[in-house]
Here is the input.
Amino acid sequence: MDDLNDIFDPRRPTKSRPLLGMTVLVVEDSRFTCEALRLMCLRSGARIRRADNLASAARHLKVYRPSAAIIDLGLPDGSGMDLIEEMANATPRVSVVLGMSGDDGMGQHVLAAGADGFLEKPIANLGLFQQTILAAVPDHERQFGPRSVPQDVVEPDLSAFEDDITYISDILTACQDGPTLDYVAQFLGGVARSARDEQLAEAAGQLSSCEPGDGRRRAQAARIVSLVQSRLQNRVAI
Here is the structure.
């Protein structure tokens, strides 16, 4: 239960809403992942702002400085690692800078780039989300000591997954060159795992494993197109 002081001062973080008063900038192109993070921020007391690419993030950061930033590594206009390095070395510095990826092997690279922590996709555990942010908060900004860690699992609405599938369908309709397919494989791999769509995740992994010039690449791209269209026609029946 929260302390009486927490109840009388609604702006102060509480043990049940430990991120109250914080603004989190999420730099992420997947609406499904953003919806999961939005729900977690809401449950934790934080406000959220979203940028779906590096250019949008740069515009946000010219206007305000968030309390924390969560940056996906695979973005449509470049690598989130560049933004992590930039923010980690900025003055004044955002208090909490976290990297995020579906590849757990990227954690060490994110930390080497100057991030304060790493979130592995899929992100579903509320307690892990809160603890990762709180562990990176500077000591002088921390509001309270030990607390119980919630084990709630956050389940985003699958309509956000449908938005992501529609987005990828539009990309594949416009272009299927090498860089585009690399991005599609990376994007769909993370989104499909988050939505527990094993068939689509496996297909994205197969596409990702095909080197440029590999004859299987075109066949895997055609399979991705077929799976995407099937999910759109069936309204994401997974």
